[in-house]
Design goal:
Order of helices and strands: HHHHH
Distance between the termini: 57 Å
Number of domains: 2
Mean pLDDT: 80
Oligomer: single chain
Low-confidence stretches: none
Helix content: over 70%
Number of strands: 0
Largest sheet: none
Shape: flat
Number of helices: 5
Radius of gyration: 25 Å
Length: 125
């Protein structure tokens, strides 16, 4: 089976350019929102100077470096590793161990979004 980009290289180029332009537009919009919020709120509340679009973009980049926001990043990989580890443990459990595990989590999450509460299928404790 041929890959999409090998079948239609021109269409692939247009899609790639479109994605790049969309990303640039999203970054520009986010920078504008940061600049607007900064100038509307912080200037009057904290008496700081107003910032320009490029300074707002710099703040976004700095926050990405310091806090690692805006995407999945390394934390996403750790989350998958944890999921894989839990799935492996779950598959090795006997049905009795699974029921006990579920009950322990129901007790921990009692009342949170309905977990732990009695339902028509399970008797109340």
């Amino acid at each position: 089976m041929k890959r999409f980009w090998k079948k239609n290289p021109i269409l692939f180029i247009f899609i790639a350019i479109g994605i790049i332009l969309l990303a640039i537009g999203a970054i520009a919009l986010l920078s504008y929102i940061v600049m607007s919020l900064w100038n509307a709120v912080l200037v009057s509340v904290l008496a700081v100077k107003a910032i320009t679009f490029w300074q707002a973009l710099g703040i976004l980049i700095l926050s990405k470096i310091l806090f690692g926001g805006f995407g999945k990043g390394c934390g996403h990989r750790r989350h998958h590793a944890w999921n894989d580890k839990m799935k492996e443990k779950w598959e090795k459990m006997s049905p009795e161990e699974r029921d006990e595990f579920k009950q322990q989590w129901r007790n921990k999450c009692h009342g949170w979004r309905g977990f732990g509460e009695s339902t028509p299928n399970t008797p109340a404790e």
